[in-house]
């Protein structure tokens, strides 16, 4: 019997249309069924997080609103969202601010599309097939 294939709901916080398209293509090729929801700002992302349920969030660190680190801190302080996997995908040279904000992982943006696609495939492999995530907390 073939196991049921699950669709993963992923929030993408990215304000650069070119990078958003690259991320969309990488997830299309990642080998998993993913429903991507895009937000161009932390405010829009916060609204989406309040309205829906996501399995993971990818966020650029250098958004125009300049509030990404505070946004991630806020997610980590919210009991309903504190276990949401947060992956920062950024061209920033130093991953430390992402980790200090509470991100679970940092992926460096690259100009090499094949390399970026491999990174997204590996990311999904890890979160879907390797990591053990806590169950949803009832009543929250």
Q: Structural class per helix/strand content?
A: alpha/beta
Compute the number of helices. 5
Write down the overall geometry.
globular
Radius of gyration: 15 Å
Helix content: 40-55%
Strand content: 15-25%
Low-confidence stretches: none
Strand order, biggest sheet? 2-1-3-4-5
What is the residue-mean pLDDT, rounded to a whole number? Answer: 88
Number of strands: 5
Label this structure with key terms.
140 residues; alpha/beta; 19% strand
Written account of the structure:
By secondary structure, this protein is an alpha/beta fold. 40% of the residues lie in helices and 19% in strands. The protein has helices at 17-28, 42-51, 68-77, 96-101, 113-130; strands spanning 7-13, 33-39, 56-59, 86-90, 105-108. The chain has a five-stranded parallel beta sheet. β3 (56-59), α3 and β4 (86-90) form a beta-alpha-beta unit. The protein is globular and about 35 Å long.
Quick overview of this protein structure:
40% of the residues lie in helices and 19% in strands. The protein is an alpha/beta fold and 140 residues long. It has a 5-stranded parallel sheet with strand order 2-1-3-4-5.
